[in-house]
Design a protein that fits this description.
Blueprint (H helix, E strand, L loop, with lengths): L23 E2 L1 E6 L5 E6 L2 E5 L4 E6 L4 H9 L1 E6 L5 H9 L7 H5 L3 E2 L8 E2 L4 E13 L2 E13 L10 H4 L3 E2 L4 E2 L8
Antiparallel strand pairs: 1-11, 2-3, 2-6, 4-5, 5-10, 6-9, 7-8, 9-10, 11-12
Length: 186
């Protein structure tokens, strides 16, 4: 408001506090058991934390099967899904991979990674292969810090960076996953 007027603020209950900031990217993180069984988890807790070296952070609840896989093997892959995978994104976030194969149930295709054991997801637009360098218990989640050891992207989605309008990535704002269409109207 350019007229110098201050807009009044309202208090937000703490259980809704995370919805006050901007949305975060929804990612599908793949991990693998020691015997090679792959798994997928949907996460909205993801961020870049260093350029040199390239480090990323993900937040995973210790109650999740993927948590024990990542902790055990020290590797994970961040896969960036397009909006057309919304049903698979929800499924991978709501069903445990402990007793089944999420690749099969979600109709997703595993592809070999170049530098880590967890697979890439073929239907995703980009991938960051990561090795865990640190982990921290932070409230009800563990923050896994991953060193990016390989990265790949669909060539048509890349200029100097991933073209999120073309890739139609999914954003998260608490609760169910969403991406308002207005972000992609251009």
């Amino acid at each position: 408001m350019g007229d110098g007027m201050t807009v009044p603020k309202v208090d937000v209950k703490l259980d809704s506090a995370m919805r006050v900031g901007p949305p975060t990217s929804v990612i599908l993180v793949t991990s693998v058991s020691r015997d090679g069984k792959p798994n997928i988890i949907t996460l909205g807790m993801y961020m870049h934390i260093s350029i040199k070296p390239p480090l990323v952070a993900i937040g995973v609840s210790p109650r999740r099967y993927s948590h024990q896989l990542i902790k055990s093997t020290g590797e994970f892959v961040i896969n960036v899904p397009p909006m057309r995978l919304i049903e698979q994104i929800v499924l991978c976030g709501e069903v445990s991979g402990k007793d089944g194969d999420k690749f099969k149930s979600a109709g997703l295709t595993p592809m070999p990674a170049k530098r880590v054991r967890p697979p890439l997801i073929k239907e995703c637009v980009s991938h960051l292969e990561c090795r865990v360098v640190r982990s921290y218990r932070t409230g009800d989640h563990t923050l896994f810090i991953g060193n990016v050891v390989a990265a790949s992207v669909e060539g048509r989605m890349m200029a100097e960076a991933l073209n999120v309008a073309k890739a139609k990535t999914v954003l998260h704002k608490g609760g169910k996953y969403f991406t308002p269409k207005l972000f992609y109207s251009a």
